[in-house]
């Protein structure tokens, strides 16, 4: 990781101090503490967006030019931010993000190219699900492997229960998403309330009210897919059997481990660690 020392303005330093205080308040109350103004919320989320990419790079989720995260703009909710096409996750900074409208017109941010497939997917999700403010889609190793079965994960352990009644499967494969119709079919598969999606023969998509929630869900779903694959391999001989968590217990566990505030709290330690490891260079 880079050890670049970041030069920041007094205003940016104040925002960082404010956000550190917000994170401390969230940890204390287990409720997400938001910046007071929409402009501050935009900066807060863009910093977490850049940080999420650095975390994903560290975890091995980068795959060439594939993968994207989007953020509904807090100031203008009919628009959203997305990462530039063809830049490695481990190099992305706040100033690299691109601000576009629902038609794909650039209205601010950086001048980099936009991933067409990424736009089609995220534009459809943000239009059809006003409750979703952030979404992550990657071609991660274990998510991609499990997606070939076209099945949801099973309630095998406590961590799997994060996704109880909150995981859909997109059972079609339409190739690279270059058409609006395919983007809307993916958004439809997510459904009216679920935040997480297994895209058959493709990969994973997660979402949430904040970047932190969507990113934490992605990390957890990738790990759940890895666990599922390990369990499937272990029981293949037929000598041992799986045990499942009951519906009542799974729902109770979901309420305690998969809420927006808890997922946000899952993200904070990773974010603080990547800040330290990179000397916060992604905030530029």
From TrEMBL:
Signal peptide: none annotated. One of its GO terms (molecular function) is actin filament binding. Residues 47-229 form the Class II aldolase/adducin N-terminal domain. InterPro entries: Aldolase-II_Adducin_sf, Aldolase_II/adducin_N, Aldolase_II/adducin_N_sf. GO terms for cellular component: cytoskeleton. NCBIfam families: PRK06208.1. This is Class II aldolase/adducin N-terminal domain-containing protein. It comes from Clonostachys solani.
């Amino acid at each position: 990781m880079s050890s670049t020392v970041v030069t920041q303005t007094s205003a940016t330093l104040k925002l960082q101090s404010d956000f550190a205080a917000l994170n401390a308040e969230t940890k204390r109350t287990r409720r997400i503490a938001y910046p007071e103004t929409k402009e501050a919320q935009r900066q807060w989320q863009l910093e977490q967006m850049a940080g999420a990419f650095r975390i994903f790079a560290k975890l091995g989720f980068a795959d060439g030019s594939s993968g994207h995260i989007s953020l509904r703009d807090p100031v203008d909710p009919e628009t959203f931010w997305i990462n530039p096409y063809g830049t490695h996750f481990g190099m992305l900074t706040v100033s690299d993000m691109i601000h576009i409208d629902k038609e794909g017109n650039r209205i601010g941010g950086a001048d980099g190219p936009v991933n067409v497939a990424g736009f089609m997917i995220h534009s459809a999700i943000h239009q059809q699900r006003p409750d979703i403010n952030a979404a992550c889609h990657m071609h991660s190793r274990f998510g991609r492997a499990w997606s070939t079965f076209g099945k949801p994960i099973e309630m095998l352990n406590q961590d799997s229960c994060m996704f109880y009644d909150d995981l859909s499967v997109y059972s079609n494969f339409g190739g690279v998403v270059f058409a609006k119709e395919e983007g809307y079919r993916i958004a439809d598969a997510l459904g009216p309330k679920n935040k997480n999606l297994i895209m058959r023969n493709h990969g994973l998509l997660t979402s949430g009210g904040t970047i932190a929630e969507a990113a934490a869900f992605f990390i957890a779903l990738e790990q759940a897919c890895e666990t599922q694959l390990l369990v499937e391999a272990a029981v293949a001989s037929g000598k041992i059997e799986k045990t499942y968590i009951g519906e009542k217990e799974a729902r109770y566990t979901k309420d305690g481990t998969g809420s927006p505030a808890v997922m946000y709290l899952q993200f904070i330690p990773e974010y603080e660690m990547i800040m330290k490891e990179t000397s916060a260079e992604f905030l530029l």
